[in-house]
């Protein structure tokens, strides 16, 4: 029932997710942050049960960090991080699948090769289907938002335009989706890292 | 997807849709993979298994090349793929692959198999995917033996496009690879985007 979607723009990627944490008829909280930060310059928006969200994102993030520590500070590209996550999901699929559908967005700062610099967004489903996309959505949100993004997306958007598209998507879901999802958290990943653009309810009131 | 043999050449073509039941997620998904100069494999079925099997096959081919110091021939590759699939007999990869290549003597090789590795080699064409009925019909009508590369391209392209147009969950573009002893030409097809 989670809504997770994202849009790439020139210089970064926007990720948005609803903040509801609910199971069956009970709503546990309305300020959950479902966009987990993997590295300083990448994040995963995750749709699925909270247990798998936390377990899988921590597992991937810590293993990426271990790679950096073991390999003299070598940073993994967003493509590499996405492929690592895909491999773990594909391995687990026939043993005990993680029920997480992910949108992984990140920014590659590549001083050595400027042609490889830039933002990218990967659609990764729970079975391990990985595909690089300019924009994407997971969950029921896709039925409401993909057409809007098809219509409004163009090459070389700037950050403000990308956020506008995301806000149109949120408005559509809040109008037409059966479940009430009043709060959304929106994050941007660009050359300066991952930062929160806006949230409906502060996730950090522990 | 479909593969056909011509005169000293083979071609393989596939659509480009990545879908989840009735939702189309992408129109640029790769399902046909070049594994060496003269060998292509088309993997139709569950997308995650397409990607896993592609990685597995690349690995096995690389290992073969290191150990044997020669390229794998299509016949051997087809047998390898069949074994890989049957190993998972009671928990299979949901893939129905087709293999297209030129053997050491430059003779075309085509084979197709089901998800547990039952192989069939053909002299004319092999098909796979959700619209195999349509593809069989198109190929049977349009195929002629000993086509040259350009004619083979046209035949493959028309067979694929007409077949996927009658299938709601296939299409959204196409790609055709023609393999001759001199190399590979790849062309994107412009088709109905519905």
Keywords:
heterodimer; A: 206 residues; alpha+beta; Glutamine Phosphoribosylpyrophosphate, subunit 1, domain 1; 33% strand; B: 194 residues; five-stranded antiparallel beta sheet; 33% helix; 34% strand; globular
Structure description:
Chain B: It holds the Pfam family Proteasome. Chain B: It is found in: Nucleus. The complex is a heterodimer of chains A (206) and B (194). In chain A, 33% of the residues lie in helices and 33% in strands. Chain A has 206 residues and is of the alpha+beta class. Chain A has one domain (3-199): Aminohydrolase, N-terminal nucleophile (Ntn) domain (Glutamine Phosphoribosylpyrophosphate, subunit 1, domain 1, 4-Layer Sandwich). In chain A, strands 10-1-2-11-12 form a 5-stranded antiparallel sheet, with helices on one face. In chain A, strand 8 and strand 9 (130-133) form a beta hairpin. In chain A, helix 3 runs antiparallel to helix 4 (159-176). Chain A is globular, with a radius of gyration of 16 Å. Chain A starts with a strand and ends in a 7-residue tail after the last strand. The model of chain A has no long low-confidence stretch (mean pLDDT 94). Chain B has 4 helices and 12 strands, in the order E-E-E-E-E-E-H-H-E-E-E-E-H-H-E-E. In chain B, strands 10-1-2-11-12 form a 5-stranded antiparallel sheet, covered by helices on one side. A 5-stranded antiparallel sheet of chain B has the order 5-6-7-8-9, with helices on one face. In chain B, strands 3-4 form a two-stranded antiparallel ribbon. In chain B, helix 3 (132-142) runs antiparallel to helix 4. Chain B is globular and about 45 Å long. The model of chain B has no long low-confidence stretch (mean pLDDT 95). The chains are: A alpha+beta (206), B alpha+beta (194). The A-B interface holds A 86, 89-90, 93-94, 123, 125, 127-131, 133, 136, 142-143, 146 and B 18, 20, 23, 25-26, 29, 46-48, 51-52, 91.
């Amino acid at each position: 029932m989670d809504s997770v979607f994202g849009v790439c723009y020139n210089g970064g990627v926007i990720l948005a997710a609803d903040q509801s944490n609910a199971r069956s008829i009970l709503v546990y909280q309305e300020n959950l942050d479902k966009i987990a930060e993997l590295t300083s310059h990448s994040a995963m928006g995750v749709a699925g049960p909270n247990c798998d969200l936390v377990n899988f994102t921590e597992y991937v993030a810590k293993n990426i960090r271990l790679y950096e520590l073991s390999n003299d500070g070598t940073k993994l590209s967003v493509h590499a991080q996405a492929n690592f996550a895909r491999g773990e999901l594909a391995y687990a699929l026939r043993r005990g699948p993680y029920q997480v559908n992910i949108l992984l967005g990140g920014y590659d700062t590549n001083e050595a090769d400027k042609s490889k610099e830039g933002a990218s967004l990967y659609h990764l489903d729970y079975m391990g289907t990985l595909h690089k996309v300019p924009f994407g959505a997971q969950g029921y949100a896709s039925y409401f938002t993909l057409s809007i993004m098809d219509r409004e997306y163009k090459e070389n958007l700037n950050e403000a335009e990308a956020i506008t598209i995301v806000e149109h998507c949120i408005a559509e879901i809040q109008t037409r989706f059966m479940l009430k999802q009043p709060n959304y958290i929106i994050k941007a990943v660009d050359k300066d890292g991952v930062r929160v653009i806006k949230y409906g309810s502060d996730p950090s009131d522990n | 997807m479909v593969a056909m043999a011509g005169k000293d050449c083979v071609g393989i073509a596939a659509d480009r849709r990545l879908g989840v039941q009735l939702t189309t997620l992408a129109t640029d998904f790769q399902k046909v993979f070049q594994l060496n100069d003269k060998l292509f494999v088309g993997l139709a079925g569950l997308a995650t298994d397409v990607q896993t099997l592609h990685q597995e096959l690349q690995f096995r081919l690389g290992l073969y090349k290191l150990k044997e110091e020669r390229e794998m021939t299509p016949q051997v590759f087809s047998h390898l793929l069949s074994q890989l699939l049957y190993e998972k007999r009671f928990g299979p990869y949901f893939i129905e692959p087709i293999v297209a290549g030129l053997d050491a003597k430059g003779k075309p090789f085509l084979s197709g198999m089901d998800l547990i590795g039952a192989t069939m080699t053909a002299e004319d064409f092999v098909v796979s995917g959700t619209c195999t009925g349509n593809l069989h019909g198109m190929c049977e009508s349009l195929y002629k033996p000993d086509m040259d590369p350009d004619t083979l391209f046209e035949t493959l392209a028309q067979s694929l496009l007409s077949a996927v147009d009658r299938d709601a969950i296939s299409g959204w573009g196409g790609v055709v690879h023609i393999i001759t002893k001199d190399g590979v030409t790849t062309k994107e097809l412009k088709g109905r985007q519905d």
